[in-house]
């Protein structure tokens, strides 16, 4: 009996060991999906996106190696997006369509292999290439772009870690948008003479360590003149890509969209006078080391978000030539009471600004009374931690003071009519607000900090005759403390001065009368003695 029990226990243990081994084998990071199982599981038309995601979930959250099943024909957008542990991908023979974003931000991808029987794609130099167009669809940190490639496709290397330099072979004619976006280790770029088109926008955006950019001197469409470390569009003199070591040449006429975005080591902005006329959307966004923005004469337009998220900037100077800042648009113009003006903030999240100066000769904008604001007519466009709001301002733009955490007190002039949404968003340290006018200032749900604690700690002061209206207001009524503005009486009021003057006149007349009476009496005494 004991022998039978021992044999049974032994068999059980053996079975358990086999199950564990099989389980480990099944959860291996190298995965090849069973095509027959997929055929049974998915019938009719495939929902390819769900199909691909389901394959990944069947394995684990982030496989390091993946083999596409034989019956899969399409890899949808974001199927492998942000799978940072993915290192190797095997493309099966029946894949005929791969979305540009299928492998977006697979930061550690280092090996790409395509089944030799695939009619649509091929892998060479650790690159996934579409045969019919010679387009490089997906690259990796170990990629060497082979000869014969004519186009670098959208998002091909986006977010690729470990990619330090890239060399384009002769024959590449087009580099599409976002293909090297967020390649934070990329240090140098060389553009060959064959390149005819580089998409504007963010081809090399947010390449934080980019230091060297050169363009072949024989290229007819782009150049890096004067060793400027930029890619410049030759026909319109627009800088489309810059880096941490760039020098803006005097011949440049515009700085394009995202040109210097994410250049985190760019500490100075040196633009020659009377050169650049336009600074594009996000042109210097996320330049975290930039401390001063001094816009010289010649700059006419600053487009939205041009300096967004430059959190170290402390000083801003706007020259006399600037005509447009951001995009202005009017919503619901129904007379002045309903006039709202919103503006895409050029300096969004630049929350360390202490000084804003506009050249006094600028006919479009001003910073009157040393207010440390940018004002256009009756619209306050941008303020900072040290701003004061002058009389004459009627409207405050969205995001005007967003994240200005050093503001403790706000004084709104009598002229102020409306404060836009997000104008003082996240200004969490404001403890006193004073509204001087005798009308309710229009605000929105998100004008101030969306936090009940703010409305408990911040005191609102209004004229005595407006207290009830503010307390009953749908939004201003959230403030727990609404009190009357304490008016300090002057030492000499008008009435007091009138009384003093009147009393003085009476006393003066009385003195004159007394003097005349005394003189008259003296004259009588003298006359009698005679």
Overview of the molecule:
With 530 residues, the chain is of the alpha/beta class. It has a domain at 27-163: Leucine-rich repeat, LRR (right-handed beta-alpha superhelix). Helix content is 17%, strand content 21%. The chain contains 6 helices and 35 strands. Strands 16-17-18-19-20-22-24 form a 7-stranded mixed β-sheet, with no helix packed on it. The chain has a 6-stranded mixed β-sheet with strand order 7-8-9-10-12-14, with no helix packed on it. A 4-stranded parallel β-sheet has the order 1-2-4-6, with no helix packed on it. The protein is elongated, with a radius of gyration of 37 Å. 36% of the residues are buried.
Pick out its properties.
Leucine-rich repeat, LRR (right-handed beta-alpha superhelix); single chain; 7-stranded mixed beta sheet; about 525 residues; about 15% helix; alpha/beta
| CATH topology group of the domain at 27-163 | Leucine-rich repeat, LRR (right-handed beta-alpha superhelix)
Mean pLDDT: 84
The geometry reads as elongated
Number of strands: 35
- Give the name of the CATH architecture of the domain at 27-163: Alpha-Beta Horseshoe
Strand order of the largest sheet: 16-17-18-19-20-22-24
Main β sheet profile: 7 strands, mixed
What Rg do the Cα atoms give?
Answer: 37 Å
Helical content, roughly?
Answer: 10-25%
Alpha-carbon distance between the termini? 170 Å
Low-confidence stretches: 17-54, 56-60, 329-343
Into which percentage range does the β-strand content fall? 15-25%
**Overall CATH class of the domain at 27-163:** Alpha Beta
State the CATH superfamily name of the domain at 27-163: Ribonuclease Inhibitor
């Amino acid at each position: 009996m004991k022998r039978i029990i021992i044999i049974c226990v032994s068999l059980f243990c053996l079975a358990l060991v086999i199950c564990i081994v099989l389980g480990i084998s099944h959860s291996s990071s190298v995965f090849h999906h069973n095509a027959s199982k997929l055929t049974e599981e998915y019938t009719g038309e495939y929902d390819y996106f769900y199909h691909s995601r389901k394959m990944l979930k069947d394995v684990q959250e982030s496989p390091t190696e993946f083999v596409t099943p034989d019956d899969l024909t399409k890899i949808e957008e974001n199927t492998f997006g942000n799978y940072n542990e993915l290192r190797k991908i095997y493309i099966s023979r029946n894949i005929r369509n791969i979305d540009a974003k299928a492998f977006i931000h697979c930061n550690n991808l280092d090996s790409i292999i395509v089944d030799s029987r695939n009619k649509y794609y091929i892998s060479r130099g650790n690159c996934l290439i579409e045969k019919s167009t010679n387009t490089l669809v997906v690259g990796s940190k170990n990629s060497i772009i082979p000869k014969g490639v004519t186009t670098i496709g959208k998002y091909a290397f986006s977010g690729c870690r470990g990619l330090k330099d890239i060399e384009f072979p002769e024959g590449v004619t087009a580099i599409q948008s976002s293909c090297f976006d967020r390649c934070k280790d990329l240090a140098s770029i060389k553009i060959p003479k064959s390149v005819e088109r580089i998409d504007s926008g963010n081809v090399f955006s947010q390449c934080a360590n980019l230091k060297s950019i050169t363009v072949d001197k024989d290229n007819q469409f782009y150049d890096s003149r004067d060793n400027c470390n930029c890619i410049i569009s030759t026909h319109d003199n627009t800088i489309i890509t810059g880096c941490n070591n760039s020098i803006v040449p005097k011949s440049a006429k515009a700085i394009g969209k995202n040109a210097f975005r994410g250049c985190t080591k760019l500490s100075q902005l040196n633009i020659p006078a009377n050169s650049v006329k336009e600074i594009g959307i996000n042109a210097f966004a996320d330049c975290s080391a930039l401390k001063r923005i001094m816009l010289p004469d010649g700059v006419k337009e600053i487009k939205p978000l041009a300096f967004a998220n430059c959190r170290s900037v402390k000083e801003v100077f706007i020259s006399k030539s600037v005509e447009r800042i951001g995009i202005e648009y009017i919503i619901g113009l129904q007379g002045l009471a309903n006039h709202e003006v919103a503006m895409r903030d050029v300096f969004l999240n630049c929350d360390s600004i202490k000084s804003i100066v506009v050249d006094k000769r600028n006919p479009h904008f001003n910073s009157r009374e040393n207010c440390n604001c940018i004002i256009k007519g009756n619209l306050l466009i941008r303020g900072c931690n040290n701003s004061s709001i002058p009389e004459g301002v009627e409207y405050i733009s969205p995001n005007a003071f967003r994240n200005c955490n050093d503001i403790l007190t706000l004084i709104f002039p009598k002229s102020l009519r409306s404060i836009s949404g997000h104008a003082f968003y996240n200004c969490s340290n404001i403890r006193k607000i004073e509204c001087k006018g005798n009308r309710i200032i229009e605000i929105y749900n998100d004008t101030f900090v969306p936090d009940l604690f703010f409305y408990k700690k911040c005191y609102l002061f209004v004229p005595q005759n407006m207290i009830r209206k503010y307390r009953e207001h749908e939004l201003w009524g959230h403030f727990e403390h609404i009190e009357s503005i304490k008016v300090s009486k002057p030492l000499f009021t008008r009435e007091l001065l009138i009384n003093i003057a009147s009393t003085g006149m009476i006393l003066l007349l009385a003195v004159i009368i007394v003097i005349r009476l005394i003189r008259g009496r003296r004259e009588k005494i003298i006359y009698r003695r005679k």
